Each structure stands twice: as C-alpha cells, then as structure tokens.
Amino acid sequence: NACLAPLYSLEGMHIITVEGIGNCRRGLHPVQERLAEAHGSQCGFCTPGFVMSMYALLRSSKQPPTKEQIEDSLAGNLCRCTGYRPIIDAFGVFAKTDDSLYTASPSESANGKAICPSTGKPCLCRNETDVNGNESSLLSSVKTYLPSSYNEIDGNAYNEKELIFPPELQLRKIMPLRLNGFNGVRWYRPLKLDQLLQLKSCYPEAKLIIGNSEVGVETEFKNAQYGVMISVTHVPELHTLKVEEDGLRIGSAVRLAQLQDFLKKVIAERGSLQTSSCQAILRQLKWFAGTQIRNVASVGGNICTASPISDLNPLWMSTGATFQIIDVNNNVRTTVAKDFFLGYRKVDLKDDEVLLSVILPWTRPFEYVKEFKQAHRRQDDIALVNAGMRVHITEAEGNWIVSDVSIVYGGVAAVPLTAGKTESFLVGKKLDYGLLDEAFNLLKEDIPLAENAPGGMVEFRSSLTLSFFFKFFLYVTHEMNTKGLSEGLDVANMSAIQSYTRPVTTGTQGYELVRQGTAVGQPMVHLSAMLQVTGEAEYVGDTPTPPNTLHAALVLSKEAHARILSIDDSVAKFSPGFAGLFLSKDVPGANNIGPIRFLQKKNIGPIIHDGEVFASDVVTCVGQIIGIVVADTHDNAKAAANKVNVKYSELPAILSIEEAIKAGSFHPHTTRCLSKGDVELCFASNTCDKVIEGEVQVGGQEHFYMEPQCTLVWPVDSGNEIHMISSTQAPHTHQKYVANVLGLPLSKVVCKTKRIGGGFGGKETRSVIFAAAASVASYCLRRPVKIVLDRDVDMMTTGQRHSFLGKYKVGFTNDGKILALDLEIYNNGGNTLDLSLAVLEHAMLESENVYDIPNIRASGKVCFTNFPSNTAFRGFGGPQGMLIAENWIHHMATELRRSPEEIKELNLHSDGTVLYYGQLLQNCMIHSVWDELKASSNFVEARKAVNVFNSNNRWRKRGIAMVPTKFGISFTTKFMNQ
Amino acid sequence: NACLAPLYSLEGMHIITVEGIGNCRRGLHPVQERLAEAHGSQCGFCTPGFVMSMYALLRSSKQPPTKEQIEDSLAGNLCRCTGYRPIIDAFGVFAKTDDSLYTASPSESANGKAICPSTGKPCLCRNETDVNGNESSLLSSVKTYLPSSYNEIDGNAYNEKELIFPPELQLRKIMPLRLNGFNGVRWYRPLKLDQLLQLKSCYPEAKLIIGNSEVGVETEFKNAQYGVMISVTHVPELHTLKVEEDGLRIGSAVRLAQLQDFLKKVIAERGSLQTSSCQAILRQLKWFAGTQIRNVASVGGNICTASPISDLNPLWMSTGATFQIIDVNNNVRTTVAKDFFLGYRKVDLKDDEVLLSVILPWTRPFEYVKEFKQAHRRQDDIALVNAGMRVHITEAEGNWIVSDVSIVYGGVAAVPLTAGKTESFLVGKKLDYGLLDEAFNLLKEDIPLAENAPGGMVEFRSSLTLSFFFKFFLYVTHEMNTKGLSEGLDVANMSAIQSYTRPVTTGTQGYELVRQGTAVGQPMVHLSAMLQVTGEAEYVGDTPTPPNTLHAALVLSKEAHARILSIDDSVAKFSPGFAGLFLSKDVPGANNIGPIRFLQKKNIGPIIHDGEVFASDVVTCVGQIIGIVVADTHDNAKAAANKVNVKYSELPAILSIEEAIKAGSFHPHTTRCLSKGDVELCFASNTCDKVIEGEVQVGGQEHFYMEPQCTLVWPVDSGNEIHMISSTQAPHTHQKYVANVLGLPLSKVVCKTKRIGGGFGGKETRSVIFAAAASVASYCLRRPVKIVLDRDVDMMTTGQRHSFLGKYKVGFTNDGKILALDLEIYNNGGNTLDLSLAVLEHAMLESENVYDIPNIRASGKVCFTNFPSNTAFRGFGGPQGMLIAENWIHHMATELRRSPEEIKELNLHSDGTVLYYGQLLQNCMIHSVWDELKASSNFVEARKAVNVFNSNNRWRKRGIAMVPTKFGISFTTKFMNQ
Q1: Which class does domain B657-701+800-908 fall in?
Q2: Which of A277, A367, B110, B741 has the fewest CB atoms in 10 Å of its CB?
Q3: What is the arithmetic mean of pLDDT over A531-552?
Q4: Where is [2Fe-2S] cluster 1 bound in this sequence (chains A, B) (predicted)?
Q5: Are A868 and A830 spatial neighbours (Cβ–Cβ below 8 Å)?
Q6: pLDDT by residue (tens digit) across A914-924?
C-alpha cells in the first residue's frame, strides 16, 4: 500500500526497501535468497512485494511465524506468472510449524527406496528400474526444503547485519508538523487532542487522516481535493484501547491490526461468555482487506467514511456499540451506532466534531453475535452483502425466548439497514423453524432491493440477505443446543454453521531431471532471479528518464460507437505543465494500425485499414485512443487529458456476440470451416441413438500483467531517429509500427525490451498502440515521452482474452460413443481484427479436444463488436475450444447418466486416429497417461468420497474432475501444428 | 568563441544556432546543403562551426562575399579529418568572384572532347578510348560548382524563411543590468559613462569586460576569480571612432573588427600619406587572432591586459599614440603609450581609472610605420616576437636623415621594449647599409634575451629582432627609392619587403566513377552528412545525461617518475559537490590495463601488467591517472581534483629516445630484426662506391581529434550491469577492459559508439583508460558518471604519434644504385607498451619505402620512457618508416649532387622485386604511375622554375618534391600485409 502513503506521513519514520535488506553485490538477505532459489520469481515484477511482506512479518514477529501467518501476510500480494506454490514453498522454511510435506529426512530417502519428499510415499515420478544410478537415471526433482527458523537459514552470501531502527530517529523528539505540499495542500500533524481540536476549529473542513486508505483512493481515482489534512496518527487520546466495566473503549485512531491483536487478548482473558461481539468483529476483520491495509486503516476512519459496504458498521450497529464524539469546545456527546449513519457517506458528525472512541459492550449470557460477509473472493475483496446480527435469549416462563434482537445488513442501501420489522416480529418468540417463513417474508420487506439497485446482481444479493439470517438462525439454534436448550440440528444442516477454514496451501510439482551437459535438464535458477528478489532488476518504469522527459496521458473515447464531432483543447492547453495534444492529423506517417500479418507481407502500411493510432472520425469502442496529451508530470498530463472536450454523435453499437450474430457483424474474410466425415449424413442415417444440442458461452478475461503497458520513447540525433524501451512481447513489432506511423525507415527506429512484468499475450500486438501514440508526441516535440498506463486505463483500452460462443449438436450411441459433432463457434474480436482470426482458428483446432469424432464439422466467425480489440492470451484460443468440448461431453454424460470421465475415457484418441485437421496420431500416449493418473490419484475412490460428502452436507459441496487436453504448437500454421 | 561568451553578456541578443537555420525535417539551409553535398563533413564535429562561420559571413555581408572573405571567415575554424578543400569548395559557390576553376561551361564539356572542369584542359583522369559511353566508362568525377550568389543556391529542400532579428528585441528598451551569478559573481552592465564611473568607485577592484577573450581564459585555465564584472559593451562614450585633426580617436571599447573596418575607410579616404600608422595597424590586425575573436575583443581590453606578446602595443608605442584616461571623479589625463606599460601585466592605470580612448596621430610626409610579427603559424597564433617601427626622414642640409625613429619589440620581455640606444644612434644619420652593423650591435644590447628567457627559442628570437630591423631598413630604403631619394634595392633583396599574400586556396581531387549497382563506385554523400551540417548529429557529449549523473575529473601525476608517498583527500572531500574519489584500492576487479593483444589471447586479465587504471605505487609519467574525482558538475569535479594532495618521492626519469638507448631502457621482448641479402658482406666487399651514415629524428604529434576523449557510463539493474556510450574507435575494447576492471562478465558490460568526432588512432586503445576510470566510480556509487577530458588534460595524458630515431648506413654506387642498407630504428613507446610494438613493426615494414635494396638489415626496439604511452596514429608507424627512408635518399642525392627524384627513380621497385619481408611484387605499377605523374605535373619544368626563383630571391625560397610511397594493409600481420 505504499502508493497510498502520503510522503508527509513518513516524517520520522525509517523506511526499509527491498534494495535495503540485501543486494547482489553485498549479498542477498535470506528471504531474498530462498525466494530466488525456490524458483519463486518469474517475471519478477511482484517479487519485491512478496519479499517485503515476508520480511515485514519476520521483523515484526518475536518468534518464527506459523505457516498460516505467512500465508496471511502474503494475502495482499498478487502474482500472475510464477504461481503461489513456489513462493509459499520458498517462505515455508521460515515457519516454526512442521508439516509432513517438508519432513522427508535424509535417512528415509537414502535407503534405496524412492521416497517422494513431498508425499512421504513411494515416489510415482521416479522410474524404479533406474534407481541404481544409470547416467540417464531420472531423479526426483522435488526440492526438499527443511523447516528452519529464519536465523538458521543459509544466508551464506548475506554478510550485512540486519538493519536496525536508526537510534537517531529513536532519540528524536516528535514535533507537531505543518507542511506545505503541491497545489497548496497543507498537512498538519498535531500531537495532542487539544491541538487537533484547535486545528479543527480553524479549518472545519479539514480532512482527518490516519491510514489514507480511503482519502488516497478518493484523491487518485475520484479527483477529490482536500486542501487541509490533519494527520491524527500522533494524538494519544485517539489511541485508547481499554477494558472498561461496560465494555471495550476503542480509540477512533486505533489501527484495525491493533484492534485484532487487542481483541484476541481480550477473548483469551475473558473467555467466550462476554465476548461474542468481540469474536464476531475479530472474525470479520480476518477478511477485512489485507494485512497491509489493516496495518494502517483505523477504526474511526472506517466508521466516518461510512461506506455502504463497510464490513464493520453493521456489526457496530447490531452489537449496540456507542460512539463518543467531541467538539472543538471540548464537549463530549455519545450516540449509538445505530443512529450515526444518516445517508450515503453522511454521518451524525458536524464539522466542528471529532469521533473520539467507540464503546463496544460486553455480551450477556445467551447473547449471540454473528458476522456475515459474501464477496467475489474472500481475501482483499469488498462485500456484495454483509451483515451483523445479535440475539439475546432469555428464559421467560420456562420458555427461552428472544428478548432482544438486532439484524443489520450492509451493501444493500446507502446506509446499513436495520431489519426492523423482522426484529419486532422475533422479539418475545421462541426461535424455531416455524418462525422462518414469516421472518423471510418480513426480511424481504425490511431489505428491499430494487431491480436497478446499485451494485447489480439483485437476485443473488436478495437471497444472501435471507440465507445470512437462516445461517444465523442455525447458529443460534446450535449454540442453544450445546447448552441443551434447543433441539439439535440435523447433520446435513451443520455444514451451514461451520465457519470456513482453509488449511495451509500445499502443492508439489514433479518433473524429471535428465542431466545433459552442464545445465540442460536441470532446474536452474534463472539468471534474473537474484536481481528480481533484490529489486535491482530494471523494468521500463525503473529506467531513469532523460532530462526533459514528458509524461503522457491518453484521451479516450467515452462512447462505444460514435462520430467525433469536435475535439476542443481550449481548456486543456492552459492546464498546468501541458506540452501538447496530438491527434490523428498530427501523425507524420500512417495513422493505421492493421493486423500484424498483413503488415508483415507488405512492410509499409497495413492493407486492411481496420485500426487507427488515433481515431480520426469515428470511435468504435469505449477506451479507443483519440489523442495523447503530454505534460511535465504524469498527474498534469492526466489532468489536462481530462480537460480535452470531445463531442460525439452516438451511433448504434454492438455489444455482444449474440448481437453481432443477429446483425451479421463479422470482421471481413474471417469465416472458417473445417470438417471430417459427413455430419449431415450421420445425423440423417439414424446411427445416433441420441442427439443433443446446446450453447456454451466462454467469458473474456483481463490479462492483468503486473506491470501495465509502458514505453519510454526518446529522440536521437535531434529526432531523426527514435529509440524506445518498451514493455512488450514483440519489440520488432514496435519497431515496425512506429516506423510506419512516423514515416521513418526501420533502421531509424530502435525498440529494446530488457524484461517485462508479465504479458500473457496482452503485450504481443496491443502494446504497440501506446508506443506509437507516444512516439508521435516524442517525434513532433523532439523530447522524450514516457507513457505508463494506469491500471484502470490499461484495463479499459487493451482488450482481453476472447469471449466465445459455441453452438453444438452432438450425436452419440447409448454406449457413449461420439458419432458426430456439428459446431458453430464465434469469438468476440472487438473493434479491430488484430489476432482474432488466428485465435478463432486455434480454438477450432482444439475443439475436438482429445476425443475421436468420426464426423465433425466446425465453422467459425470473428464477430465485430464495439469493444476494445481482443487479442492473444495464454492458450491463444485453445482453452476456449477445449472448454466448449468439455461442456458437451458433460451434457452427454448427464444425458446418459454416467460420469463425464467414463464418456471421456471411451472416446479418447488413440494411435491411428486422424485428427479433423488431417494429422495422423502416432505414438499416442493419452490412454496410458490417463490410466496412470487415474490410478495414482485414486480417482475412483476420491469420486466416491466426494459423493458421500455431498450427500451428507446440505450446504457445502465438493467437486472433482479429470480433464484431458492436448495442445498444438506453432499457433495456427496447420502443417506445423503437430 | 562561444565558450568565452558569458551567459550574462547575451542579454538582449538574438542567438542563432546551427540547428536554428535549418534541419533535416524542415529542410537544410543552402549553406548546410552545399557543405553536405560537397562532402565537406566527415566526422562532423567541426561542421556546425564551419556552417555558422559561413552563415555569419553571409548574414553580415550586404553583397555576396569574395573568396578571400570566405577563407578569412573560416580562419578560426579547425578541421582534422575532412580537409579544407571540400569545405572551401562547398562554400565557394557563395562567392561573387569567378575563378577559372569553376567556369567549365556545359557546352565545353559536352562537345565529346573530355575537358576536365578543374583545369579546363583535356582530362587526364578520363580514359579517352571509353568516351563513347561503354557501361564501364570512366567519368570525370570532379564535381563542377558553378559560381552563384547565395540567393541563387538550390536550397530546394529549404522551405523556411531566413531568420530575422526578432522585432521584440529590436523594440526593447535596453536596461542597465545587475545580475547575480554562480559563486557570488556579480555582473553589471552600465549604459552610460557616469554609471560606469560610479560602479568603479563602489567596486574599484571590478574587472571591466568587453569580449571576455582574456578574462574568460584566465578564469578557465588560470583559476582567476573576479567577484564583480562590469560589461562596458553598452557605454557609448567608450565606443568613439572619430577622425580628428591630430589623428584618430579610438574608444577603448571599440572591437578590433570595427577598428579594421574604420581603418580601411580612413585609408581609402585619406590616401597613404597620413596613414602609414593606420596601414601598419590594419596589416597587423589581419593576423591578430581570428575573425571570431576580432569580432568581440576590444582595443582597450588588449591594451589594459598588457600581454607581453600583444601584437598592437608595440605599434601604439612606436606610432606615438596617446591614451586618454578618466578617473571616477571625471578627471581626464593623457599619457603616451610608451609610458603606459610598467611591468608584467602592470599598467599606468589606477583602480579608480578607466581607459577612455586612444589617439593615433597621423603620419607626416616621409614618415614610415611598419609592423612585424613572427609566429608558428600565421593565423590564430600568438607571436614569438613582434614589433612596431616608425621612422621620420627629413631633409637637412640636402641630406635625407632620420629625424625621429621609434623601434619597439614585443615578446622579448615582460613589457614591450624600446630599442633606445639604437634609436639614439640612428637619429641624425642617413639610412644606408653602412649603419646596419652598428645598429645590429646596439639592438643586441637594447633587446637582450637571456638564455633562459621565458618562451624559449632564444637564438631564433634574437635573430628575429635583428631581421625585423633589417626588413624595416630595406622597406624604408625602398620607399625612399620610389621617391627617388635613395638607391634602389638589388632584386634579390626585394623579396624581403614584399608582404606576404596568399592566393585563394585551390585544389582538386580526381577520381574515377565506375558505377556498380546503385551506389558502389559513386561519390555518395555519406548518411550522417545531413545530420552533421544541421548540428543534429549526436556525439557522446550531446547524449542527454540521465538524472543523478556525476561528472568526473582526473587526479594526474605531476611527476615523470616517482613513488607515491601519500594521497590526501581531506580537503578535496569538502569541496562543493564532491561525491567521491576513487583510487587503485577501490578497483573492484583488476587494476591492470595491458596491451590489447595479450588481453585478446586470454580474455581475463592482461599478462603483461605494464599499465594500471590508477597508479598504485609508482607513477611513470606526468599525466598518469592516479585517481578520479566525481562531483555534481564538471567544474566542481575539477576543483575537487585540484585539492587532492599527492606527495611524491622523485625517481630518475628517462625523457628521450637517446636517454633510453643510453640506459638500455626498452620495453621487454620488443627487439625485432628483419633482413634480406647480406649487409655485412656487401659493405665488406667493396662493391659500394660510397657509404654514408646518419641519423633521422622523427617527432611525435598530438592527435587533436576535435572531440576530446569522453564516455558516459551508467549502471543498469542497479549496478549489476554497466552500460556506456564512448567516443572510441574500439567499443569492444571498452567492453573487455571495463569488464576486467569491474570484475564483471563481458555479457554485463555494454559499450556503444554511434559516431565520434575524430580519433586517428588516439581512440583505439587509450580511450579505454578513461572509460575504465569512470566505470569504477559509476559502479561503486551506482550512479551515472560522465567524463569529458578538457583539451589540456587530453593532450597531457593520451599519448601521441610515436617519435622515432633511425640510424642508417647506406652503401651505393656512383650511379646512384642502392646496394645495402643497415638500419637501426627506435620508437618512443612511453610508459606502457600499448601498441608500440606493432607501430615499430609497421615502421620497419615500410622502411625500404618503394626502393629496391638488395641487402638490407633493419633492427628495431621500443624504448621505455617516462612519457604518456604513445599509441596508434594515422599511418601506424608507416609515415615514420618512410620518412627515415626519404631522409637517407636525400642524403645520397646530396652526396651524389643529383636531384633526389633521380635517385628515387633509379631505385624504384619493379615487377619481380622481392620485398625484404618476403613479398614478391607482381603487377607493380609504380614506374608507370611515377612517369605519368611526372609528365602530367610538368615536374621537370617546375623544378627548373623553382631553381630560377630561388636564385633570384634571397629572402624567400620555394621547394618542390615528388615522394613515392606504398602502404601495407592489415597492420603488421605479415602474411596479410600485401
């Protein structure tokens, strides 16, 4: 979260960076060394983050952390290419806990019997006949990491003392701050509450800041501007954490991570009786953002931000918490949480008031509190719906009835909603199944979600409100039952109240080691690994910018399909730092970006003019580039680009494959057809016992390379030559297109790429448009230009994995043997052809997957839609083709009431199969691989176990599958695709 | 002279740069276009200067300039690789005068007869048999430049209007200035005399500045510091130029170029009678510095600087000029020039006084003034000795006697010296030859030059003082004779008084055009020419420096041979901007720089450790690198480097080839011997009619590439990789040495060289030591480091062409046929071996030149001396070997009293000759080439004409020679050297 930490807030702090803990010249820190040696870095862009998360954990722990703590500490780090297994493996050695996965002792593996160190069982990946050391013997390659505490780690090369907190900072007297920032911003840091209140009286509109995790986002993405900011991180009165008679007093500036620690301590000391609320809050905090955010975000910040999807506010409300508020005249008032939230981000707090603390009351006997949250993913995600519920059950006339209840939902309205009618209905009643129907009906009234409610997914979210309550009901019922005061739940329902716990991640990768020469066949640590774990590896963004470098921001289309009426820069050009706006008319060479293959044939300009560097007349998608603004800083460029006023006349847009098919909107010359046998004849001949038809939709996917698209362009020989450093998978394409766009010979354009932070196909052809746009500005102004896309712009403009639509008709026998497949396949090309035709072809080539189909006909088309042009993505159409195949296989299995694996096994390719694109399969291993894997994984047993689990658990299910695939190489050049 | 113009002085000016007048994208200015198309740029480093000198001339001339003006305007520009012929040819088209060289009309050359456009005669370079258009016909290649005025020039590509002086500057009111500069410097620009006087009263120590041509040099090279500077360029009272009754009044701030124009006008108006002084001063100004300096330097600046070698001060003194001086209280006093100069740079001017003007009196009838100057070269050089002499002859009693005489010499003492005794002796005497002996004796007393007089060359300079007077005597005698008042000079003496006039330079280059394909065989304009004439071509110094770049300065040995006792940086490290000092102990890899060939064999470190990056213990020459200082600016780095205090213990040094031979000081393993026939036997056999012996010394030579040694080094991947851009002839050598010095693999070191501003061998191996030194600083600090040698440092440290000593013994017949040569050849390798052995070998291979010598023995050795290591230089030893050969050929000719050409012709190689290194000559063309050239140049006639001229002219001589050479390729690899 470094990007959210204002520089001001670092006053007096000691900052440790990945470069500071170790480097290649002086020696790697053990954390760095482990990650490199365990192959835990690939593109390396995310690597410093992982290293520092782990380092921070080790530095903050008094004893070696557990594996769970390690995984938790990495929850805020994303990796897109290495995969998490080797990273977690690497850091596993720093854990104090042991695990069978890592305990293969040398004696065990030395007794001649091949023990796989990852499973502890006889090794499947090892060829037993070769054990006795033939030169070519296959050795197990799973590296054994012995558990170790972090001071036992090798660290041979690390010869520096661990960094200490500088004594000069420790001895330093903290002073109140008043700093002046860019654009007239002022930053105050009072050291006492009365200083804060005095500031607040001078600047009632001042924003109070603790972690900046909300204000930072508002400033960055919502153009919020705060002139005066008061950092309250050093006001001790706001940092109270006290156990009091009526509950816990929690200062508003207390960080969420501190609150977690404090709650754990309180729960441990007081036991569960009084701490049901504490426990609910603690459990909710586990899924509240990630470690890095919890380390800085504060209790009061979350409350006052009053986000409609705050995970905590429904809990404060339902637990009956109260807020203490102080005004600038030192008057303190108290309000209950329930009354505090007035409207969308509007709270009961005046400009001259400050939230002082929260008082969380103890729970009474038979008072139960439970938290709920449903999000797309558990970690680091915001809720779709969340809730806090509390019930107090008391004995009245021999009956245990609800004496008090509080049900509050978040994420369903502008403020957390209390289910008042439901509460009233429940009070005085005995909690039993009989109440549920009426409670559900009332809940629907209490928590209405209009069809067009912000956030969408209305049906799902409505059902979540009910199911949360149902789970709460089951929970309380179960709790009462444990005290003998209620009937027990049936076993199938128990799964609804068991809270989710994920075991520590485990995984192994098995491969053969065949030494050939010095390195071939060995799992060598790649050459950049050491540079990546130390942060020394330079990416485009790290390249020092030459003097006079300008920074670029794009003017993007806001319409999916529209005619450009006018482009007005009269305001933009007076924006601070503005240095130029470049449009299609400014392109010195050709404004066209065409499909790469056509360009390759004719070196000069694209034949199919289906793409433009800058939209000249008509825009065909949201996010299409209309112009580029360059300015002295990235921020100024963005601000100026925002001020370019484009007027459009809207045109009808095509926004799905279905719409494209309906409108006949296809890219020209993209119809493809492949066939084998005679599908028509087969269907007509009555040999098929069954014929099924269906549709499969395969969605798109953002590449999400960690390093966004970026290029640094600079003129050489005063602009008669253009050089660039680009994050691209195809520097030669950059050279070619930029030369074309600038009207320069190829010899005068140089593109270099040292390394990139992920690409996955997204930097194969699409990266060039940003380099080309930047080069126009650089060429015209004869100044260096750097373009780095913000993540949101990158996602908006660069296209994705192609979404597909497959329509199938399959004929087969009752035994499950496939006889005929008639397939129509469409992909969503977006607004230019780019690589879509090749992707379509590849999907078609993979669309029989590994199944023998005597009669097959596949026809494909690339749909033109008003989306950013979709492009290459890992698999290049293959996964989509296979997924469609796996879908109709499952459809067959359902039809025949057999397991999909049986159907698959029955139809697998075998030696002599001629694929529908003409290849004769020889030495086909698929049957033996299938059988070996089925046996080694105990698939049949596992399938049975899954079935048993599913029939025993009503609210939680498991799945299992075996999916065979093959994958052609060489993309779609047919004769090479074998 | 841009380097001497303080930024302050440009206030209110319009600056036109080479980039401003035209560029590749918008079109070239005609001046640029001509220079490129006439092949007038090679390395291109000097090219912008030539363009701007020409442009300035055209812009300042109301009508097209003459060829003489063009050459004059280029006198301040140096070129080291293109040669001046194509440059002058290129600009010749802008001249208004015509010349037979450029008048070949199309009709003449189109009549089928091959007329060479450069000579107007039937073309010798054209094969007559091929005239009628065979495909392979040889075409005359001498391009015809038709004369043209500069607005008739093609300039097709030039589509910009000529730049105008900006109206806003023209309309702008000039204001007095008070500017604050770096290091507390203050710059005043008063607009009136009283403002100046007031400033002078406030700051008596203030320096008055006009052209900064003296102060700029003092500041740059002599560490002079002036806190307060007053620019008097805008004080009208100091710019007087008036014809008055008693003479000319010349304001002290008048520029020398203005004075030239004014004198020309006055002389034209007044005729020669009153203007003998004016004429002498005008003639002296022609050789006073160059146009650029005369454009800025002032009359008063030159007077007050009081340089002992001022070209004008002896003239002011001898002409009887007076100086008007004003003090801060407005009192004006007058002093005669003779009394103004008090001592070394000490004049009769108090701190509160300002030189106002000079009054140059008219000359009377029979009053003659003459200027004298002898320098190493005529243009842009300072005098060895100069002088001003005036005599007034009057009739007394029927005799024309000297009534007044003034003889003043410059360059012979701290102040211009008046020859008082000689003057007294002459007064009242009649000027005739009889006076000369006594006058010479008195002159020797008047102008004593001690043996150790500053400036050296005492004997030569002494004789100059006498010969100047002799010339003056002849001049006056001749002048009186023209009036019939004296005997005439004999014809042989006339040559002493004819003033030197050089005709406009002419030259042609003839070559064959044989078209092969599109470009081969054609005189194509090279690809960078357009970039070079527009100044758009980037050299190392133009490469934008990355942020945080440090600048380097070297700590150099001040001793030729000494032990380093201590290196003290205690003062240096507190110097402003200091960032580090790196010495031998700081080198991360090997501190050795060895000969390139040994390195090539063993890729890692040099085998012969005969050079160090930084001297570790002992220095072996003045200028050897001891350390490198890096700082934020180049100036700060130099200042800090000056403060590094190195203590030495002196050791005996070897400072010449002779000393080395005497001491047996040779580089190890460098003795070489080549022989053919039997020299001893031949000398012993009495077949030689004559045997001569002798020695030839061949001096060294500074490379003087226009672009000094420079490298920009920067770390990549945080210093795990080192990249550099270097001005070098061998980037691969930079890569290899820097990798070695830093201990990095070759793959982690990159050196790029786009173009260099001349090298000539001086950037073949020696450039690497500066790159290596800079790379140590860059690597250790992980910051970019730029090193650019100042010219003086470059000349001091980089080594030169090898000086040689050849000792020969030649036996030959009376007919002139060479029978035997015994040769010992030594070169001065300096303090490391570098390429000296290869240079020696190459000299040996060329030391028979083109002469057939039946018996030859040559032995060679490389001398170790305490000079900077000498290195490759155009010709690589070849010229030295040939020069030695030509010397003994001349010795033979003298011995035989025949012309050298006869001896050469007699001994030329011919088909079947076996060279002494074993090559059999086949198809040897030397005889036919020799004969053809001798005929086409009318050599025999020309030789006769030279002889006649020389016998007719006692004081001026001509020479003529034909020198044949051959040159082996592939340096010294014998089998390829043919």
Answers
A1: alpha beta
A2: B110
A3: 96
A4: 3
A5: yes
A6: 998 888 999 99
Q: Parallel, antiparallel, or unpaired: how do β-strands A207-209 and A228-231 relate?
A: parallel
- What ipTM does the predicted assembly reach? 0.87
Alpha-carbon distance B336 to A734, whole Å? 75
Was B174 annotated as part of a binding site?
Answer: no
Helix (H, G, I), strand (E, B) or coil at A564: strand
Q: Which of A25, A714, A720 sits opposite B719 (nearest CB)?
A: A25
Domain spanning B175-231 has what CATH number? 3.30.43.10
Which pair of structure tokens corresponds to residue A248?
């816990």
B25/A720 CB distance under 8 A: yes
Which of B25, B546, B720 is facing A24, going by the closest CB pair?
A: B720
Task: Tell me: pLDDT of A841 over 60.
Answer: yes
Distances (CA, A) of B482 to A52, B399, B491, B498, B636: 99, 17, 14, 14, 63
Q: Do A534 and B716 touch (CB under 8 A)?
A: no
pLDDT digit string, tens, across residues A380-413: 889 999 999 999 999 988 889 999 999 999 999 9
List phi, psi (to 5°) of A282.
Answer: -60, -45
Which fold does the domain B17-97 belong to in CATH?
DNA polymerase; domain 1 (1.10.150)
Q: Most B CBs within 10 Å: which of A28, A47, A530, A718, as the mutation test of the B interface?
A: A718
The span from the CA of B131 to the CA of B444, in Å, is 68
CATH number of A236-497: 3.30.465.10
Cβ atoms of residues A418 and A406 within 8 Å? yes
CB B9 within 8 A of CB B233: yes
Q: Which single residue is written with the structure tokens 């109070």?
A: A208
CB-based contacts of A586, cutoff 8 Å, min separation 6 = A614, A776, A780
CB distance from A535 to chain B under 8 Å?
A: yes
| DSSP H or E segment with residue B788 | strand B785-788
Residue with tokens 């053919």: B676
Chain segment A661-712, per-residue pLDDT in tens: 999 999 999 999 999 999 999 999 989 999 999 999 999 999 999 999 999 9
pLDDT digits (tens, 9 = 90+) for A427-455: 999 988 899 999 999 999 999 988 888 88
Same fold, B17-97 and B236-497: no
Nearest Cα residue to B411 out of B355, B372, B354: B372
Listed in order, strand segments (DSSP E) in A19-173 are: 139-140
Q: Which of A720, A747, A755, A779 to mutate to test the interface with B (most CBs of B within 10 A)?
A: A720
Question: What distance in Å separates the CA atoms of residue A343 and residue A348, rounded to the nearest whole number?
Answer: 10
Cβ(B306)–Cβ(B341) below 8 Å: yes
What does chain B come to in residues?
978
Q: Contact A717/B544, CB-based, under 8 Å?
A: no
- Give the CA dihedral A483, A484, A488, A491, nearest 10 degrees: 60
Q: Which residues of A touch B23 (CB under 8 A)?
A: 718
Contact B649, B574 (CB under 8 A): no
pLDDT of B132 higher than 80: no
A181 neighbors A225 (Cβ within 8 angstroms): no
How many Å apart are CA B336 and CA B317, to the nearest integer?
8
The domain spans of chain B are 17-97, 175-231, 236-497, 657-701+800-908
Q: Please give the annotated binding residues of A for Mo-molybdopterin, written as ranges.
A: 729, 760, 874
Q: Per-residue pLDDT tens for A453-490?
A: 888 889 999 999 999 999 999 999 999 988 888 777 88
- Separation of alpha carbons B202 and B352, rounded Å: 9
**Position B609 confidence tier, pLDDT thresholds 50, 70, 90:** low
Residue B413: both structure tokens together? 């003492």
Mean pLDDT of chain B: 88
Interface test with A, best of B21, B47, B716 (most A CBs within 10 A): B716
The CA distance from A700 to B857, in Å, is 85
